[in-house]
Amino acid sequence: MASQVGTRTKRRPGQAPGNAKADEAKAKKLECIEKLRSGEYSLVENVPLPTDDKWNRRVKPSEAWKKFGRVVVDKTHERTNFVQCFKCKLVKICHVSSGNTGNLTDHSCKPESTQVFDPLPRDVKGTVAELLAALSAENFLPFVLCESESFRKLAAFLVEVGFKHGVVKPEDILPCPKTVATKLHAKADEARHELVEEIKEDLENGLLSGTIDGWTDDQKHRKYMAHTVSHISKDTWEMQDNLLCLPHCHAESVTHEVIDEIIKMEKIKMNIDPNAKIHYVTDDGADVVKAVKRS
To answer: What Gene3D superfamilies does the record tag this protein with (predicted)?
Structure first.
């Protein structure tokens, strides 16, 4: 890639003399892209140095620098003559000594970058498959994990981080389990709040049905109680089944009084009237039947 920089293209009859310069500029941009990918170059905000004329003259920075950043040598932070769009990653040439940013200001991002990258070696995808297989085997995860939209978003984000910041240590970017758990609880609370708002009208009009199921996990023998609700969506007129709550039952013996108390407490936590009418369906479990009759 680097060998293309500075080469001259033989001019053919009728060929515009500017083509050689265009080819040379393209080669330089491709070389810059490779160095960004390898981590030799990095992207930073274009902040004028105290020695810059712009700094000394107190000239207001161009609006272009809201879109573009300056490409610098990662180790020395020496500025290069390349800039890159923060959004679409387009690389352009903009000399450090030049104050002309007209070609940057007029830039508008395309849906997909038109820059050409070399295809990945075949063994890269194979290595990823091996790592995913090890991940699935070690953590008993399904093989379809790689088809999950959330997993692909995570993979895309990690690729973007590597593209922007170069080689990153896993421990510098991967959070601890406690942080993930905290984020998960927050997302669950948010989703539950949205669900309660969605079913509020049906709940007030007695149009909800529900089920209550209890079980004990095999490892720590903790008791749980799943409370689901079902309603007809007003947008699609389809049945919507949602898990309203999954409380942990601390009682040694789960009686109908315990079930009734748990149901009411969970409703209160979600700002639901504990006496709100829900049509429960059960497999004739005597304790559940007695509990929902009390609710």
So the answer is: Zinc finger, BED domain-containing (1.10.10.1070)
Q: Which residues of the chain have pLDDT under 50?
A: 1-16, 54-58, 112-114
Tally of CB atoms within 10 A around 250: 9
Q: Are 272 and 282 in contact (CB under 8 A)?
A: no
Helix (H) or strand (E) holding 268: helix 256-269
* 274 residue type, one letter: P
pTM of the model: 0.49
Helix (H) or strand (E) holding 244: strand 239-245
What are phi and psi for residue 239, nearest 5 degrees? -70, 130
pLDDT given for residue 116 in this prediction: 52
pLDDT at 73: 92
- The predicted pLDDT at position 105 comes to 81
C-alpha 35/C-alpha 115 separation (Å) is: 14
How far, in Å, CA of 286 to CA of 59, rounded? 80
pLDDT digits (tens, 9 = 90+) for 173-218: 999 999 999 999 899 889 888 888 888 888 888 888 988 888 888 7
The Cα–Cα gap between 249 and 254 comes to: 8
- Residue 104 buriedness (CB in 10 A; 0-12 / 13-18 / 19+): buried
CB 55 within 8 A of CB 49: yes
d(CA 248, CA 155): 34
Amino acid 118: pLDDT: 62
DSSP state, 66?
G
With 0-12 / 13-18 / 19 or more C-beta atoms within 10 angstroms meaning exposed / middle / buried, residue 8 is exposed
d(CA 225, CA 246): 6
Tell me how far apart the alpha carbons of residues 25 and 112 are, in angstroms, rounded to a whole number.
21
